[in-house]
Amino acid sequence: MTMNGTRDLGAIVLEKFQFSDELFMIRVLPEEDSSIPLPGQFYLLKSWEGFDPLLSRPFAPIAVHENGSLDFLVKVVGRGTKIINSSIEGAKVKLRGPCGKPFPAPSGQRLLLLGGSVGIAPMLFAYKRYKDIVPAKLVIGVPGGEWENFCKSELMSDTNLEVFSDDGSIGRSGTPLTFLTEEGVGTDDEVWACGPIGMLKALGGSLIHKVREDQVYVSLEARMACGIGGCLGCVIPTTLGNRRVCADGPVFRMSEVSWDEL
Ligand SMILES: Cc1cc2nc3c(=O)[nH]c(=O)nc-3n(C[C@H](O)[C@H](O)[C@H](O)COP(=O)(O)OP(=O)(O)OC[C@H]3O[C@@H](n4cnc5c(N)ncnc54)[C@H](O)[C@@H]3O)c2cc1C
Ligand code: FES
């Protein structure tokens, strides 16, 4: 099926890299030509046959390669991600994507990208895509030592990067918001963020009166079913009324989201 470039695709698992028991990267190659995703867009992925679990799971690519293969950074949190973690090279998977609206082209003097946990994925993709167009800085926050192999991996090389960890075991102690407090943010900076909801809620307070409201974008998560705007299973409250994370987002202006009602 096709909708705004979104298609249902068969794909094959090319490689899987295990960073820890519950954190891995999976590289899949779609079997047909498909639209190239932009940072912020995502795919629904299903690596099992049948209807148990019923729904595919949404993931934002961390990298896209010239041959069309897509890398996803996945943290095991439940049944679907556990099954995906058991995928082997050569296995067939199903994809729907690219879904959703991407981050707009950067327009600030510097692009500050804040990623927490697996929210790092779209931020690293954005960094690699835009770093030659606008000065960019990637600030990531990870829970602790189980992320060490990821932080030292090839993926993170050649990156203007600052790492924070909750327990101080990797990089500096703190979260990406610690960076904003300690290093400051310029009025002409553009800020994009993706991560746990607590981090995104706190971001507003850290940035207030420091950057222009229209220069701050967040990528949100919601539980999803169709991924293409048809089922209304992923709506969130915004200042413009209810919006579908899968089709109107997942990228929203920070000022549009009704944070108190989330
Ligand atoms: C646009 C988008 C991009 C995403 N990108 C990534 C990514 O790059 N890497 C990654 O590891 N994960 C990503 N996620 C989250 C990922 O989709 C969920 O972790 C996954 O669907 C969980 O499936 P499960 O069957 O393992 O867990 P379940 O058994 O379904 O749930 C386990 C726990 O996780 C919570 N949960 C499940 N799905 C979501 C969700 N969508 N949002 C918030 N909480 C959820 C549940 O409430 C429950 O507490 C993304 C989600 C969205 C919406
Ligand atoms: S998941 Fe169906 S409308 Fe968003």
TrEMBL record:
Superkingdom: Bacteria
GO molecular function, one term: oxidoreductase activity
Residues forming coiled coils: none
Ranges of residues in domain FAD-binding FR-type: 6-105
Residues noted as binding FAD in the record, renumbered to the chain: 80-81
Biological process according to GO: pyrimidine nucleotide biosynthetic process
Obligatory cofactor(s): [2Fe-2S] cluster; FAD
Positions bound to [2Fe-2S] cluster: 226, 231, 234, 246
Note on cofactor: Binds 1 [2Fe-2S] cluster per subunit.
Keyword Electron transport included in the entry's annotation: yes
Alphabetized Pfam families for the sequence: DHODB_Fe-S_bind, FAD_binding_6
Keywords: 2Fe-2S, Electron transport, FAD, Flavoprotein, Iron, Iron-sulfur, Metal-binding, Transport
Family according to the record: Belongs to the PyrK family.
Official protein name in the record: Dihydroorotate dehydrogenase, electron transfer subunit, iron-sulfur cluster binding domain protein
Taxonomic source organism: Thermovirga lienii (strain ATCC BAA-1197 / DSM 17291 / Cas60314)
